[in-house]
């Protein structure tokens, strides 16, 4: 019985050795298969997102739809909870899909008009098809005018509806 | 026999009618479930892509890696064949993954340095971590200096290696 046990453990060691020897170091680097990055970044996989601000402005003008720009960071907890509320809100998702050009960014643009009261995340700015940033459409926080929290979805929805009433540009 | 045939065709018409009647117009709109858009757009799903030029420049400077910018269009056949060759070339994918910051764009940026001889697709530009566009790194076509074709992958690889030899910025 003892011999059998010893034999088994020797066998186990051999199996372990051969399996680690059979694994060529070079062909199995640390990196596993990556999941392709999405443009939505979890803010609504079924929506069609612009990639860049230039592209979003082009679409906004040519489709005559307001633009919604979401600034966020992947590892910011406030961004994460807002993202979850935004992605799960069917009314917001539907309106965004049908009536808006949408863009989410994890880096600031060079356009200072998109940070009327500073660069922070999360913040949401609307841009009129006339290419005017709607600094008048704000959330409920005086120190961060364009910030929203997960329980502000009703306000965000009504702000989206405000953004759909275009500015009359005077000639 | 004729009656049976007529009965069958009446039945078929009824089945067709009822199935088209049973399809409520409102709950089955034309749009089916969309596939989330990826940042790679098929140029290498396993690579990590920057979203915008600003982001790519930031990464290039902070990681001290050259930037490769690919301009293309989804429905341009030359872009499609180049994309296939690029995505399938293991040497290019590996070098791009390890040594480059990469960005693919379907819209032009506002930076004119990225179109030294005009805006056309497909074209590939390299940018030094010092934020200088490497207009000296060109393909083999005199009328479109930054264009590549599927059988230019060796040249593209050697151009990538050239881009890895950084410019010495004079002080």
TrEMBL record, chains A, B:
InterPro entries: AGR/TXD, Thioredoxin-like_sf. Belongs to the AGR family. This is Anterior gradient protein 2 homolog. SUPFAM superfamilies: Thioredoxin-like (SSF52833). It is found in: Endoplasmic reticulum; Secreted. One of its GO terms (cellular component) is extracellular region. The gene is agr2. Residues 1-22 form the signal peptide.
